[in-house]
Amino acid sequence: MSFWQFVLQNRTEMLQLTLEHLWLVGLSTLIAMLIGIPLGILITRWPVLNKPILGSANIIQTIPSLALFGFLLPAPWIGARADRLAILALTLYALLPLIRNTYTGIKGVDRAVIEAARGMGMTDRQILFNVELPLAVSVIIAGVRVAAVITIGLATIAAAIGAGGLGEFIFRGLAMVNNQVILAGAIPAALMALLADTSLGWLEKRLTPYNHAVFQ
Fold it and tell me: How far is CA 215 from CA 125, 140, 143, in A?
């Protein structure tokens, strides 16, 4: 059986697994953004927290994905359902680029611009939301871009704990030693990663000229 024949015969299951994959990736990336961006802002205000927060995020990145799934299994409520466990693990993996890029983007804002805003009577809160974040937005989007691509790839491993997604085809194909089944999971996941990278890259470039305009 060729790859395309397999796709046509299993198109309903492929659609279901693709939607499951998108759900895992979308929700975990969103949660990571809600946690990682505020943490990135926090360490620009409290430098003493820089090493503990970035160090912890770096350590998480060094843990193999299957090992992290195993560590989280005994967790109450989380370990009771595979999709919750997978979303938590994917969220943890997505934190580092979001924290780091938010911190880098804000710290990279020209100090003269900040001093000018302060001289106009802006409060620290106003400077953050009206000056620093708008100028750092393209760098933050770059972090979201990296986090999304990482999460799409790692979400295929979630099938190993029964969380669903396109990894189901990959693990099934490995067990059957069937390249067509493996490709049925790998190709859509790769296309999803390329689409996320391209679209977020386009958004990043669209926002970059705005940054230059603000500086000028």
Answer: 19, 17, 22
Rounded Cα–Cα distance for residues 132 and 38 (Å): 13
Residue with tokens 């359902």: 81
**CA dist 166 → 10, 14, 26, 69 (Å):** 13, 8, 14, 17
- For the cut 70, the answer to whether the pLDDT of residue 214 exceeds it is no
C-alpha–C-alpha distance, residues 26 and 20, integer Å: 10
Q: What is the distance between the terminal CA atoms of the chain, rounded to a whole angstrom? A: 60
pLDDT at 144: 97
* Closest by CA position to 106, among listed 65, 135, 74: 135
Task: Give CA–CA dist 208/78, Å, rounded.
Answer: 39
Looking at mean pLDDT, say which of 117-126, 154-163, 186-195 comes out highest. Answer: 186-195
Phi, psi of 76 (to 5 degrees): -65, 145
